[in-house]
UniProtKB/TrEMBL annotation:
Residues that bind FAD: T118, G157
Molecular functions (GO terms): acyl-CoA oxidase activity; FAD binding; fatty acid binding
Family the UniProt entry places it in: Belongs to the acyl-CoA oxidase family.
PANTHER family: ELECTRON TRANSPORT OXIDOREDUCTASE, PEROXISOMAL ACYL-COENZYME A OXIDASE 1
Domain Acyl-CoA oxidase C-terminal: 547-616
Subcellular location field: Peroxisome
Lineage of origin: Eukaryota, Viridiplantae, Streptophyta, Embryophyta, Tracheophyta
Organism: Triticum turgidum subsp. durum (Durum wheat)
Full protein name: Acyl-coenzyme A oxidase
One Pfam family in the UniProt entry: ACOX
Amino acid sequence: MKVAWAGSRHAVEVADRMACLVASDPVFRKDTRTMLSRKELFKDTLKKAAHAWKRTVELHLTEEEANLLRLYIDQPGYVDLHWVMFVPAIKGQGTEEQQKKWLTMAYKFQIIGTYAQTELGHGSNVQGLETTATFDPSTDEFIMHSPTLTSSKWWPGGLGKTSTHAVVYARLITEGKDYGIHGFIMQLRSLDDHSPLPGITIGDIGGKFGSGAYNSMDNGVMRLDHVRIPRDQMLMRLAQVTREGKYVHSDVPKQLLYGTMVYVRQTIVADASRALSRAVCIAVRYGAIRKQFGSKAGGPETQVLNYKTQQSRLFPFLASAYAFRFVGQWLKWLYTDVTQKLESKDFSTLPEAHACTAGLKSVTTSATADAIEECQKLCGGHGYLNSSGLPELFAVNLPACTYEGDNVVLLLQVARFLMKTVSQVASGKQPVGTTAYMGNIQHLMQCKSVVNTVEDWLNPAAIKEVFEARALRMAVNCAQNISKAPSQEEGFSELSPDLVEAAVAHVQLIIVTKFIEKLQEDILGHGVKEQLQKLCGIYALHLIHNERLGKLYAQVRPNAVALVDAFDYTDHYLGSALGRYDGDVYSALYKEAWKDPLNETVVPDGYQEHLRPLLKQQLKLSRL
Ligand SMILES: CCCCCCCC/C=C\CCCCCCCCCCCCC/C=C/C(=O)SCCNC(=O)CCNC(=O)[C@H](O)C(C)(C)COP(=O)(O)OP(=O)(O)OC[C@H]1O[C@@H](n2cnc3c(N)ncnc32)[C@H](O)[C@@H]1OP(=O)(O)O
Ligand SMILES: Cc1cc2nc3c(=O)[nH]c(=O)nc-3n(C[C@H](O)[C@H](O)[C@H](O)COP(=O)(O)OP(=O)(O)OC[C@H]3O[C@@H](n4cnc5c(N)ncnc54)[C@H](O)[C@@H]3O)c2cc1C
């Protein structure tokens, strides 16, 4: 099962090696992270990042190994934005010459970059951004400016205190005309003493949800006061401004401006499956240790994992963790395929790639955030302690529902794509890829489900048909209702709640389909495929209705702990007293409690100042 989860034997081996490297290095300790002040936490992140880079260079780590190293260090920091957004933005939007110049420095960490798109006033509506980049032909420069308070850049990770450079998104103005949003490379801080360059006001936007968690990241605010940059720092793969100030389009679609977001959304699906699997691993292992109540006849107490209610709340998450993992692996393939096509100037699959990345990012991160919260409840009171690992896991993953596109905004993008596809089907065009099922419209609009028993749900063809019929009927229903509205725009707006549901149904169909396709591959190991078939059945059935699931849960229960052990997480990475591999939960909880700074003294700070006078006063009063 470890191989099925990781993707290959090689993947298991590399992941094990990197996880052990991190777990055995004292610099990467994280058990007291939630007790650090914001300043201490930030400094700790700088230390970990520098040490990680040192180890990366010393050990000549490959890209795959370095990525895993970062993953197991498990602490958001400026390096994420540098590697996952700054570098890909230059790769995707810069010319070859620009890539050579900037990436050479970025790859060696001679500069640290971030992705500065969102502003105080606008995040979702990228076309509404206000920062300006006005071309001055007299000096061959752009003047970068924040004309209003709301145009202040707001949120970029690493911007607050660390980044030396950024790809800044701004409205390009030349020859008096506004050409909309474009990307520009800007140096923000001195490479000598790290002070902000003239005209740049920059800082951190303040503490965020939860202790520890995303507070390790210096999300930043930045205002620009007529800062000049050379013309060649506009990213010029999509469009150029000539020396004379003429605006020239390239032959690539302008949507490639959003390409970095497509890339990151795809990686976020993998992050979601990992976060969900961690929460499930903690709740399942703990559920096998925790006992409450016994039989009336005075028998032994029951492991809480044996309660049917616990199983019906927890096992759909276990199944979802596997489902998201497999669809994430497929999405990575799809992204690579689209990128190769783009390189040979085939842009035909871009809309589908956008819909798949946006939709899957949205559905998997929302489900994951909800599931982590539920896993806290599934662990009872102990789940609410920081030492359970769950509060921080929740706080770190919750913003994934918002960053890289608010989940509802992204689902509306999927819905827009679906409405276009329905209208193309109506005009006789055969849909392809993840919407190919829509071509089977006659049958899917009328067919009746053949599913009657739990066993029927293990029949892949029956499952697929149900999900296809559901997704198509919801999409067609929306399209018909939109066509009755006075205008397409009004209809879309009026029906947006239904459109979001139709988009979710389509995305769930993709997840179910990719799970089924995974089961058609050669899967080695005794009983592995059978367990995955049950999990696939649970994933599909829990989305439709819960009635017949009990039988499947009973079949998964004996292997539940093994199914979470297959995630192959070290105790260091899991970071949970409840989810420990050895099950020694109670001594771990007890030991963790004594680490709290409140326990440094027996009598707390503040006793002399506030508690003692209060108690003495009450004593005096009672004697009167
Ligand atoms: C400490 C450890 C150290 C270790 C060191 C070791 C070394 C390290 C090595 C490796 C490190 C690796 C680290 C890994 C860590 C991983 C961590 C994960 C990181 C995550 C970090 C996240 C940080 C967050 C960043 C951000 O949030 S950036 C900002 C994101 N913003 C958004 O997403 C905005 C959302 N809005 C939009 O996308 C758009 O505005 C819109 C909603 C799509 C609307 O667009 P608009 O043009 O206004 O309108 P439309 O008319 O709807 O669209 C026009 C047209 O375009 C199509 N479209 C839209 N989007 C796209 C797209 N993306 N691609 C293609 N096409 C698109 C749309 O469909 C329309 O098409 P049609 O006209 O044909 O319909
Ligand atoms: C932790 C974190 C890290 C981030 N890192 C970065 C970064 O590195 N770089 C960067 O540039 N940005 C970053 N961001 C910003 C992020 O990309 C935006 O917050 C995100 O795109 C959402 O935009 P918004 O904040 O403007 O939300 P809003 O759009 O203001 O959303 C508010 C509400 O309005 C709803 N809404 C908005 N538009 C519509 C619509 N058309 N139809 C229906 N409902 C709608 C949303 O669903 C939501 O409920 C980060 C954000 C966070 C939380």
